[in-house]
Sequence to fold (312 residues):
Amino acid sequence: MPGFFRRSGAAVSDGARKRMATLKPYPTLDMWRNPVTRGFARRLHNEESRRLLEEIDFDYRLTEGSVGGVEGVFYETENAANDAPIILYVHGGGFVAGGPTENAAGVLPTCYLSGCNGFGPDYSLLPDAAYPTQIEEVNAVYHALCADHAGARIILFGEATGAAIALSAMMQWRDEGAPLPVGAVFASPCVDGLGASDTQITLDGRDPVIRSVRGSYMRNLFRFYAPDAAPDDPGVSPIYGDFEGLPPMLTHAGGREVLLGDAARLTQAATRAGVDARLQVFDGMYHRFHAHWSLDEAREAHRDIAEFICSL
Fold:
C-alpha cells in the first residue's frame, strides 16, 4: 500500500510525494470506541500532530487560557497586528482526539501570514461528552469574544470534524440574531454524518490518512458523536442546514481525500443560498495537508487563506 501512495502526478511536489509515503492512516473507529485502545490511539495521534510544529520556521507563542469559561490556547506569531481579525480555530480529530495545541500547526501559518491572533477552544472529546456539548462550548467562546472585543472582526476556522462543529455553531448564531464572523474558513471539512458524498467511494484508498469504507466510517463516527440525533440533523451534519445569510466562506480540500465531496457540496449549498463562497482544491493533496508547513502545497494553501482574510 505505501508504494501505491507514491504514485502521483508530476505536478505534486517531491516533498509531498515523500511525505505521503510515510503517512499512516488514522486509527479505526473500533480503536476509538474501545476504552483499552482509545488512550493509546489518542496519544499516538496527538504525538504525530504535535511533531508537525517542528516544521514551523517562524516565531510563535502558544498560551493556555480560557474564554467564556472554556479552556483553550491563544495563538500569537511574530507578525501579529493589533487591527487584524481574531481567528476562532475549531480543531479536527474525529471528535475523539486532537486539541488546540496538538493541531496548532494547522492554524499558526495562517495567523503568521495574515497578522491575526487566534484562540482555539479545548472542547470536550468523545466519549466524555457527546453532541451538542462541543457546539455549546464553541458558542460560549464566540459570544465571549464578541463581548470582550467589541467591534472586533472574527474569522471562524473549522478543520475536518471541527468544521461540522463550527458551521453548526455559526448557523445557530445566525438564527439567534447574533453578530456573525466576517468570514469563515473550512479546511478538509467533514460535515456529513451520512457519508453520502460520491468521493467517499471514488477516492477511498487514495488518501494515506483517512479511509471511508464506502461512507460507513463517517456514518459510524457521527453516530458515536450524536447517538441521540438523526445523522442528517443540520445541527449534527450542517451540510443539510440553511446557509442563507452566512458570511463569505473559503473551503479547502485535497484532490485525493474522501472529504473532497463534502467540501464541494458545502460550497455549492452556500452558493445556492446566496453566500459568497469559494472552493479551492489542491491537486494531489490529502486530508489535513495544511498542517504540513514544510510542503509547498501547504504554504500555498495558507497564503490563499491569509489573502482571503485580508480581503474581508
